[in-house]
Design a protein that fits this description.
350 residues; alpha/beta; 12 strands; 16% strand; globular
Length: 350
């Protein structure tokens, strides 16, 4: 594929994709465009070979055009987004600016270089979206399919739904060669500590409360980030132009179950490695206790969707995607990664 442009490539999912793509496509040069806001970190992609980091804004259309033209880039993988629901509730404007206006800026640049001024060569604009655009499911509702009507319930999901529609429109109106993937809840290495799994893990190590929204029975489909990267690769390799693919992890679990797995995993790690008690003296298992005692129920957040679930039949049948990790092994590996990479997440806590 030669050069590939990855927006938001210093963030969580984008950074994991950069590592994944570099390992499997060592002859490609990866150009990462990232504004390096709070969730983008140089350290996430340090040491990746044939990778160049450009600090810039996806809303800078001229910059994107320049990169596409000068580097002869024919593939964009678009991760850059504001993605934390709580932040979208307290400050929606940033989500409108980045997720909608930023995506439109990228699409304009791609159209200008690949279509208006281009040679008609094959190209690909792959857009990363979320299952949250579909809204909330009841306990007995079938999982989200690619043809499930959009019904976003938060400013975050509404902004992602808008960006999905823009990508679709640029394909159907202008002929831009696009694909879109809608993923479920990601977890794994390099995730910013505001999200559930790293937040609860780090709180557990510090002996801080584990704040559980409402009754803790909100259900999500959990997708290990490496499986997500495999799904994106399948979209790029086998996806049909203009199509959307749901990428799930096959692990539909209530939040309480996820939190209990974190608690058990932390306790097991301390039992296996006694030196952790010296590193994290405030953690309950360092004092002979159980991490589960830190669980604390708090007022539910506004507009909290009850259940998400992904039907990945289309992705399995047409692009050859299937998750390779189950949640039990994935969460163990994730806990081990955070314990082994304390300097990375410690630096984010200030």
């Amino acid at each position: 594929m030669a050069d590939i442009l990855v927006t938001g490539g210093a963030g969580f999912i984008g950074g994991n994709f950069v590592h994944y793509w570099s390992a499997r496509h060592p002859d490609d040069t990866i150009i990462v465009l990232d504004l390096l806001t709070y969730a983008g970190n140089r350290s996430t992609i340090e040491g990746v070979e044939r990778m160049e980091l450009v600090e810039g804004d996806i809303r800078d259309t001229a910059l994107v055009e320049k990169l596409l033209r000068e580097r002869d880039i024919a593939t964009i993988v678009h991760f850059a987004a504001e993605s934390h629901v709580d932040r979208s509730i307290s400050g929606p404007d940033a989500f409108i600016d980045t997720n909608i206006l930023g995506t439109n800026s990228l699409l304009k640049a791609a159209r200008a270089v690949w279509l208006d001024q281009g040679s008609g060569r094959d190209h690909r604009f792959h857009h990363i979206s979320t299952d949250e655009v579909y809204g909330s499911l009841g306990p007995n509702d079938p999982p989200f399919r690619e043809d499930t009507p959009y019904a976003p319930n938060s400013p975050y999901s509404a902004s992602k739904a808008s960006s999905d529609h823009l990508v679709r429109a640029y394909h159907h109106t202008f002929g831009l060669q696009t694909t879109t993937s809608n993923c479920s809840n990601n977890y794994g290495p390099y995730q910013y500590p505001e999200k559930l799994i790293p937040l609860f893990l780090i709180n557990a190590l510090s002996g801080k409360p584990l704040p559980i929204y409402g009754d803790g029975l909100n259900v999500r489909d959990w997708l290990h980030v490496e499986d997500h990267c495999r799904g994106i690769e399948a979209c790029l390799t086998n996806g049909a132009l203009g199509e959307t693919y749901n990428i799930g992890g096959g692990a539909e679990l209530p939040n309480l179950t996820v939190i209990e797995e974190i608690c058990r995993g932390v306790d097991a790690a301390f039992e296996k490695d006694p030196t952790l008690a010296d590193r994290y003296p405030d953690a309950p298992p360092a004092k002979g206790g159980q991490t589960a005692r830190l669980k604390t129920f708090v007022t539910d957040r506004a507009g909290h969707d009850r259940r998400y679930a992904i039907d990945e039949t289309k992705a399995r049948a047409t692009i050859g995607y299937a998750p390779a990790r189950d949640f039990a092994s994935g969460i163990r590996d994730t806990i081990d990664w955070y314990l082994a990479n304390e300097p990375w997440w410690r630096a984010l806590l200030g």
